[in-house]
Specification:
21 helices, bacteriochlorophyll biosynthesis
Length: about 525
């Protein structure tokens, strides 16, 4: 067992909470000790939900372990149904209560409640949150979806289901809105969106569609595969993150729906492709980026970074071990070693070793990048309250591509501004103590100019590496600081590589410019 401060995923019953909280008319009775009752904290503080999560706890204590904890659970289940009147009841145990082996499913069946009771077997010591969400959604679909006696008669407009969005998901609410608009624009009607805002009655009519749109495979892939086998509903495989992937998604949906959509009209509001080709973005070409997150967002982000923004992917990884094969295949496209790990310290070490100029990751990587002095944008759960903005901010579709451009590029643009501020900090007119120019001042400002202020050293770029091939002379270090910090790391690496190849023991100013000439050929 490893003691850790951070974790990328909670236990599987947290995934079950995300499904229950996302839906309507569903209640989750959780056999859990006092201390495991933190659902309110997750959903009302982090996601800022306007209602309490539909979760009832048994909250047994240490003194109850010598008595009848099974009766405690039956009482809690009976009271939850009487109070909330759900259309379906989920029952299960937290990781601690799992050790008691009270069988919540069997205990609830014995109550003969007049609603479907869906037992959740979530092995807390083998699986984690995303698996728990996927298993919960699968069990709901398996128990509630009704296969019609006759094949569905297709109407004038093709129908689909949207699968995967949950509570506490990264921009799921806005992604659903964007994809709903996109599907409507190309002529596809949405039958059911689940689990977000769906009820058990909605799940019962999932078969009244022609195909499924899977937005988040970590949650929906198991259920979608079951529906393909048992309800005859094919499912999409393309995740519409980025302008290129969105166009491919439209083509895939059109093939499943047997329609000919107007792609040009659908992407009329897409500005990111033009921005990515504009003069302002030219200096971003070749920026080194490290990507880490859940498999869906990490793979998509790497593709957008490499193919649409012209970045160089120097690292790609995920904590989603169930999708490790997909990430390994994606990493091979960029010639990098995949990182499959849920140890944030291992991730931090990989980021430091790769020396990227931008990090795309979770809130963990945001903290890591801050310590390393690197710009960072969050692309995946786990996330914090600031990643649930009040504004409309999807990640998917053409508007999502615009959001990605702003979110990823602006940290680099701000880096340029910070460099310019630092470059002019010693100027007699622009230093910190200078009066505003529009207020006037002494006629001869040069005579009152303060002493030059040394630009602070960027610790992440200036700290020596563990194995430097050559020492840096003081004048060379001073000259290196004149290079903008967002390319200074690359200049340092190239110079050290050149010095190593030429067997130069000490890097001087001449060596720095020789290296620049060498790599400019």
């Amino acid at each position: 067992m490893q003691l850790t401060l951070w974790t990328y995923e909670g236990p599987p019953h947290v995934g079950a909470m995300r499904i229950a909280t996302a839906m309507r008319d569903v209640h989750y009775v959780l056999h859990a000790p006092q201390g495991d009752t933190y659902a309110d904290l997750l959903f009302t503080m982090i996601e800022r939900a306007n209602k309490r999560p539909p979760v009832t706890y048994t909250t047994f204590q240490a003194r109850d372990l010598g008595g009848d904890t099974a009766q405690l659970f039956k009482d809690a289940a009976r009271d939850a149904y009487a109070r909330f009147k759900p259309q379906a009841l989920l029952v299960g145990s937290s990781c601690t209560a799992e050790l008691i082996q009270d069988d919540p499913g069997g205990l609830t069946q014995a109550l003969n409640l007049p609603v479907p009771v869906i037992p959740l077997e979530l092995p807390a010591y083998q699986k984690k949150e995303n698996w728990g969400a996927a298993e919960t959604f699968y069990q709901l679909v398996r128990h509630l979806a009704v296969k019609p006696p006759q094949p569905r008669v297709k109407g004038d407009k093709p129908r689909c289901n949207i699968l995967g969005p949950t509570a506490l998901g990264f921009r799921h609410r806005d992604d659903v809105r964007e994809i709903l608009q996109l599907l409507e624009l190309i002529g596809v009607t949405v039958n059911v969106t689940a689990p977000l805002d769906a009820s058990p009655a909605d799940l019962a009519r999932l078969a009244n569609a022609d195909f499924n749109v899977v937005l988040y495979p970590e949650v929906a892939q198991t259920a979608a595969s079951w529906m393909t086998r048992n309800l005859g509903l094919p499912a999409t495989k393309t995740i519409p993150i980025g302008a290129t992937a969105t166009r491919e998604f439209i083509r895939e949906v059109a093939a499943l729906a047997s329609i000919d959509p107007d792609v040009a009209a659908a992407e009329a509001q897409s500005r990111s492709p033009w921005y990515a080709k504009s003069v302002d973005s030219n200096y971003l070409t070749g920026k080194r980026v490290f990507v880490f997150g859940d498999a869906t967002h990490a793979i998509a982000a790497a593709r957008v970074a490499a193919r649409e923004f012209g970045f160089k992917v120097v690292g790609l990884g995920t904590y989603s071990r169930e999708f490790a094969r997909d990430v390994r295949e994606a990493a091979a496209l960029y010639g990098v070693e995949p990182l499959i790990s849920d140890d944030y310290l291992e991730v931090e070490g990989a980021i430091a070793a790769a020396g990227p100029e931008l990090v795309l990751g979770t809130q963990m990587e945001r903290h890591i990048a801050k310590r390393l002095g690197l710009p960072c944008a969050v692309i995946s759960a786990p996330i914090h309250v600031q990643d649930f903005p009040a504004r409309y901010s999807p990640q998917m579709g053409f508007e999502g591509a615009n959001v990605l451009f702003d979110t990823w590029v602006h940290p680099l643009m701000m880096g340029l501004e910070e460099h310019l501020i630092g470059m002019f900090r010693g100027d007699f007119e622009f230093h910190e103590d200078a009066a505003p120019s529009h207020l006037g001042g002494p006629a001869n400002k040069a005579s009152t100019a303060p002493a030059l202020i040394e630009v602070p050293t960027q610790h992440n770029e200036e700290s020596p590496a563990a194995a430097i091939p050559a020492a840096w002379a003081p004048d060379a270090e001073k000259e290196l600081r004149k290079i903008p910090f967002f390319v200074r790391g690359k200049a340092r690496r190239n110079t050290e590589a050149y010095a190593l190849s030429m067997s130069v023991p000490v890097i001087t100013v001449e060596t720095l410019y020789d290296a620049k000439a060498h790599f400019s050929r």
